[in-house]
Amino acid sequence: MAAHSAVLSASKIMNPFWVGRLGNTAKPPPAKYGGRHTVTLIPGDGIGPELLNHVREVFRFACVPVDFEMVNVNSALETDDDMNNAITAIRRNGVALKGNIETKHTLPASVKSRNNVLRTSLDLYANVMHCQSLPGVQTRHKNIDIMIIRENTEGEYSSLEHESVSGVVESLKIITRNNSIRIADYAFKLARERGRRRVTAVHKANIMKLADGLFLQCCREVASGYPDITFDSMIVDNTTMQLVSKPQQFDVMVMPNLYGNVVSNVCAGLVGGPGLVPGANYGRDYAVFETATRNTGKSIAEKNIANPTAMLLASCLMLDHLNLNDYASLIRNAVLTTMNETRVTQLCAEQCCCEVARGNLCCNLTRIHISFPAKLGNEMRVHTIHF
């Protein structure tokens, strides 16, 4: 029981929305058909399909009241039909779990990244990543606990490029006051709700005086409304140096789109790699959950070595969003227990044996359920699963 309490404690600090749905502006869709939720499932490319298969097996084993509506998106197509189907499904269900969709560099410049189209079409303006030291993971730095809030709909990811004359390309970076105010307010609101003490705005306003200057100005305006939270700012290049030298100094970080991409990958490396960190994208009406670093992992696809931890934890964030907190806690505790027991070789590294990891995870699901004070009734049943 003591070991279980320790895991439960670790689980609480892992989830930035542990108490209810703090910081999350999207309303959860109502349960349908006898209390079950329908979730859009987008396998994506690379390791996405196999990771989501593991999530489905774990959900089945734990009797999670979720039904998946699978929508495949073909990244090789130039048409938007598949993407439109996926967006329609998310609008219908309100929530999605997805693998990363590959962006083909061989396609014409007019073909936008499917991932960006998804986020902008649904106005998923806030990307949230909780980067934290995990049990059983040996890293250079200890006691890391950073929340990264990334503006998700504009900046360099606006996909506005053109060749003005032959050999000269212009790429537009879009920063707007409305979106900057919105993401800054999200960061401060989340910091207050989670009892955080400091928000750091990451920028490059010394060079991009208008664009990043506007973002920084908006952050300062919002900060004035939160006198209980310390606000500071840091230039992005210095930020990366400070992260790899003393990451414990950071608490909540808010930044434009491109810097968020860089900083989130650095932070993932600090706590053990991209296979360990979940991510969430929130808007006013919809929420999409995925791994935090958004890579397809094509080089290790179909080899049964892709680490399922990040996707499993992302599915737990999704369950919290659906107010299925007991199921989220059950699966999250089983994941942390499996990691802490180091029962799987290289489980906490970038690669592991997915089948063995899932088998040990299901064993821990059964064991933790016996002592876990969740209102699951007698729904945990014995299943025969062939790995």
UniProtKB/TrEMBL annotation:
Major localization listed first in the record, in broad terms: mitochondrion
GO CC field: mitochondrion
Pfam hit, one: Iso_dh
Keyword Transit peptide included in the entry's annotation: yes
GO molecular function: magnesium ion binding; NAD binding; oxidoreductase activity, acting on the CH-OH group of donors, NAD or NADP as acceptor
Domain Isopropylmalate dehydrogenase-like residue range list: 38-356
Compartment(s) of residence: Mitochondrion
Keyword field contains Mitochondrion: yes
Keyword vocabulary terms for this entry: Mitochondrion, Transit peptide, Tricarboxylic acid cycle
Gene Ontology biological-process annotations: isocitrate metabolic process; tricarboxylic acid cycle
Coiled-coil stretches: none
Subunit structure: Heterooligomer of subunits alpha (IDH3A), beta (IDH3B), and gamma (IDH3G) in the apparent ratio of 2:1:1. The heterodimer containing one IDH3A and one IDH3B subunit and the heterodimer containing one IDH3A and one IDH3G subunit assemble into a heterotetramer (which contains two subunits of IDH3A, one of IDH3B and one of IDH3G) and further into the heterooctamer.
Family: Belongs to the isocitrate and isopropylmalate dehydrogenases family.
NCBIfam families: mito_nad_idh
Annotated protein name in UniProt: Isocitrate dehydrogenase [NAD] subunit, mitochondrial
Organism: Neolamprologus brichardi
Organism ancestry: Eukaryota, Metazoa, Chordata, Craniata, Vertebrata
